[in-house]
Amino acid sequence: MSVEKAEPAVRPAKAPKRSEETRNALLDAAARMFFRNGYDRASLQEIADITGIQKGSIYYHYRSKEMLLFDVLKLIHDRHLDNVRDLASRAEGSSLQRLQSILRGHTLYVCANIEDSTVLAREFVKLDREQAREILGEGFDYQRVFRDLIEGAREEGEVPDWIEPKLATLWVLGALNTLHRWYRPHEDFSELEIAETFSQQLARGISMPSANTVGAVESQASAKQ
Question: Is the pLDDT score of 100 beyond 50?
């Protein structure tokens, strides 16, 4: 009587999962060091120490510090884009109301993640042209959310016809992208105060008539008196 040997149970490989976890921890550690010291002065040894790995292990994931920077910036950018898309999917009301709602929510996000936002704004210039183009390809989707709402607000009569949606979008995003230069947590204003004020002022800024229009209306009113 022969006894068949039981086949050993097949266990799922754990290495890929561990590798992905290490890579994510590496990206977070690199973002932290790029914020504290700047990309140029951040060392791979410091990043490895924070991650809890040997310096040589970094090269298993990235052949160079430049490649590490690219993935850090792409990850941060993708998170910003995901936040805007989520806010856009939940916003209600007219185009201008939805724009203000997204501006408010995204300002809160930028303030809450000011370290990542700072790294993205400050270190993006370190990328070469092809790397920047790869990230900015999705950046146009980021701009499109705001541009479509401004165009909608203009069609609905909430924004004057003289407002150019593309330029207005760049102005709005320019204001958001400079938050890192002056915002300091727990100083002067709370995140909520900044978000409320920013969103209201930016929305009103594109919905108000121009000074020329106001002057023309006032002149017409004076002539009728």
Answer: yes
Q: How far are the Cα atoms of 62, 198, 211, 220 from residue 66, in angstroms, in the given order?
A: 9, 34, 48, 61
Q: What is the pLDDT of residues 72-91, one digit of tens each?
A: 999 999 999 999 999 999 99
The Cα–Cα gap between 91 and 84 comes to: 10
Any idea which residue has 């704004």 for tokens?
121
Work out the average pLDDT over 209-224. 43
Apex 106 CA angle, 103 and 111, nearest 5? 120
Domain with CATH 1.10.357.10 in the chain: 65-209
127 Rama class: left (phi>0) / alpha (psi -120 to 50) / beta: beta
Mean pLDDT to the nearest integer, 204-214: 66
Token digits of residue 86: 């989520």
Rg of the chain over all Cα atoms, to the nearest angstrom: 24
Domain with residues 65-209, CATH architecture? Orthogonal Bundle (1.10)
Residue 201 vs residues 91, 92, 100, 194: alpha-carbon distances, Å: 18, 19, 9, 10
Rounded distance between C-alpha atoms, residue 127 and residue 123, angstroms: 8
Q: What pLDDT, on a 0 to 100 scale, did the predictor assign at position 140?
A: 65
**Residue 138 — very low, low, confident or very high, per pLDDT cuts 50/70/90?**
low
Compute the distance between CA of residue 60 and CA of residue 62 in angstroms, rounded to an integer.
Answer: 6
The fold of the 15-63 domain, in CATH, is: Arc Repressor Mutant, subunit A (1.10.10)
